[in-house]
Amino acid sequence: MDVKEAIMTRRAYRSFVPVTINGDLVDDLAGCAGLAPSCNNFQPWRFVFVYGPPALEKLHEALSEGNRWAKDASLIIAAFARRQDDCTLPGRDYFLLDVGMAVAFIILRATELGLVAHSIAGYDEKKAKQALGIPDDMLLITLINVGKHTTELKPYFSENQIKGEQGRPPRKSIGEYTFIDRYTG
Ligand SMILES: Cc1cc2nc3c(=O)[nH]c(=O)nc-3n(C[C@H](O)[C@H](O)[C@H](O)COP(=O)(O)O)c2cc1C
Q1: Domain for residue 117, yes or no?
Q2: Alpha-carbon distance 184 to 163, whole Å?
Q3: Closest ligand 1 atom, CA of 69?
Q4: For a FRET experiment, which of 21, 74, 151, 181 has its CA 20 to 30 Å from that of 57?
Q5: Could you tell me if residue 180 is inside a domain?
Q6: CB within 6 Å of ligand 1 — which residues?
Q7: Which portions of the chain are predicted below pLDDT 70?
Q8: CA-CA-CA-CA dihedral for 91, 94, 97, 103, to nearest 10
C-alpha cells in the first residue's frame, strides 16, 4: 500500500473485532511516530500503548458515553505532550502540530497493516491521565483506538455513527480551503 492508498483507505470506523496486540506492533507504530518531523527535532510526543485488559478497563471509565464503541478497541494509544517541550515562538506553540504529525504517521501505518486507528477527543482528560499515570502538567491530546474493522452495526450506535460506518462524512471542496498566491477567503 502506498501513502496515497493509505490516505484514501483510512476511515474513523467504530465497529471493531478483537485483534492480537504484541510488542512488535507497538515497536512498529511507535517507530513510525518517532520519524515524524518536529520543530528543532524536539520530538515532544509521548505515548502510552494500553492493551493489558486491566489497564484498558480502567481507561474505559474515562470515555464519554458517545465513545463507548472504543471499549472494543484492542489497543488504545494515549498521545500526550508538554507545551514547553517543543518550540514556543511568540504567539505560536508547535507541540500540537508536532504530536498531530506523529499521530498521523501512526494512523497511516496502522491502516497499511489492515487496522483501524481512530483518534478521539471525547474523554475525561483528568480521569484518563490518572488511569495512565500521566502528570498534570502534560496535555493528553488524543486517544487513538486501534482495532480490526467489522461491518457489524452496534445496537447503541447513533444515527450519525451508523452513517459514519456506511460512508465517509462529506468534506469541504478543495476550493473552500485552498488558495493560490494569496488568501481570498
Ligand atoms: C482530534 C479528533 C477528535 C475526534 N474525536 C472523536 C470522538 O470523540 N468520537 C468519535 O467517534 N470520533 C471522533 N473523531 C473522528 C472524527 O469524527 C472523524 O475523523 C470525522 O468524522 C471524519 O471521518 P473519517 O475520519 O472517517 O473520514 C475525532 C477525530 C479527530 C481527528
Answers
A1: yes
A2: 34
A3: 11
A4: 151
A5: no
A6: 11-12, 14, 67, 119-122, 142, 168-169
A7: none
A8: -150
2 occurs within a structural domain: no
Residue nearest to atom 4 of ligand 1 (CA): 120
Q: Report how far ligand 1's centroid is from the alpha carbon of 40 (Å).
A: 29
Task: Report d(CA 166, CA 185) in Å as an integer.
Answer: 33
How many domains is the chain partitioned into structurally?
1
| Chain segment 30-72, per-residue pLDDT in tens | 999 999 999 999 999 999 999 999 999 999 999 999 999 999 9
The CATH number linked to 38 is: 3.40.109.10
CA distance 87 to 128: 26
Query: What is the tally of helices (H) and strands (E) in the chain?
Result: 7, 7
Task: Provide the domain limits for residue 125.
Answer: 22-148
